[in-house]
Amino acid sequence: MNEAHPLVTFIPITETVNRPALILGISSDRIGTPRGSSSFYATLSKDLQHWTGLPIAPYGGLVYGTHEKRFRTIGGLNIRFREDLTSLIQFDGVKVHPGITYTFNQTHAITFLMIRGKSPGFTYTFSF
């Protein structure tokens, strides 16, 4: 399915050593829903390296998808191999999507994603 959909992320509460970040956003609905479906989400995320010594940052939250018109719990785990190379395992409330991301020039990122854990895909992200 070929589709471009805006992603809006707002962080009203930033992470500290002892507090998780609160992230709110709007995105396309989960992978596999019809074109034009949107989602509205709230997540908490926390880098645990300070407490565990491991380069991991889990997240969890709640999303409302317009395709099924229902709330779902979501979650995932980010693993940092290097500053420019990370892996994100995402659970969209239905399926798991592991990926690996290479970031360059601090604003560009390319992700190889295994959609539903079996179909390959790529994303390109530009941050400003």
Entry keywords:
128 residues
Q: What would you say this structure looks like, in words?
A:
It is a single chain. This protein is mainly β and 128 residues long. It has one domain. Helix content is 3%, strand content 60%. It has 1 helix and 9 strands; from the N terminus they run E-E-E-H-E-E-E-E-E-E. The chain has one helix spanning 49-52, and strands at 8-13, 21-28, 38-45, 56-65, 70-82, 85-91, 96-104, 108-115, 119-126. The protein has a 9-stranded antiparallel sheet, with no helix packed on it. A hairpin with a 4-residue loop joins strand 4 and strand 5. The protein is globular, with a radius of gyration of 15 Å. The chain starts with 7 loop residues before the first strand and ends with a strand.
Q: What's the gist of this structure?
A:
This protein has one helix at residues 49-52; strands at 8-13, 21-28, 38-45, 56-65, 70-82, 85-91, 96-104, 108-115, 119-126. The protein is mainly beta and 128 residues long.
